[in-house]
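Task 17 of the worksheet. Students: predict the tertiary structure of the chain below and write it out as structure tokens. Keep your answer in the requested format; marks are given for formatting as well as content.
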Amino acid sequence: MLELARYYSTNNKKEAYNFLFMTFSGEELGLLGSKKWCDNPSFPLAKINYMINMDMVGRFNDSTRKLLVYGVGTAPEWVDILDKTNNTFSIKKDSAGIGPSDQTSFYLKDIPVLHFFTGQHSDYHKPTDDADKVNYEGERKVLDYIIDVIDAANYYPKLKFTATKTAESKSTKFKVTMGVMPDYAFEGKGMRVDGVTNGKPASKAGILKGDVVIKLGDISINNMEDYMKALSVFSKGDKTKVRVLRGTEEKELDIEF
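Model answer:
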């Protein structure tokens, strides 16, 4: 964000819009900072063209070139803009304006949004998530792309807000955890494991990073929603079978929560 602020304060381009750069606290406590600003804005919301959120863009994977972009359905122009300006990334698009990050607060005020995300990693929420782990060249590529997206959006009239469908879900409560980090960029069938926490049920069961969970108990896992539904069935102390795809081989493992 600071680099984009530096770029737009020093370049000689004539922009159609001014830019307001903001950081928010309290995101993981319930989007408290962004919600507070949107409820008490220092600039009229009606004059805001769109909001771009960069929540975790420092771990770009050079081999997969995967970039996740959420909110592409919040304005009819977004997909065309994203496609025309992309020549670097394998992009996974998600249309929903509501998600677990600060763009949601702006979407709920009828403002088009985009959320750029390079994916989860095994250091997430750990002291090991340090500066030496950042892919700086990969981050530069993401920022260059965002600049191209902003430049392209300037050729359009003020973007038209579009409400998006949000996956219907009941309040799913979990009494157990497997102790894995899902690969949210995975587009295949099942839930791919991107990290395993030592000492947790998955680790004790023998699940490895890269395994794809395809069945938990009696529930077949086709996607993240299936996985969450399956987890909600179990309580601490329950034992069951978990089936994973490891490479081309299926393995059935015993797991205890």
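Marker's comment: Helices lie at 2-10, 32-39, 78-85, 103-107, 136-153, 201-205, 224-231. The chain has two domains: 2-153, 180-256.
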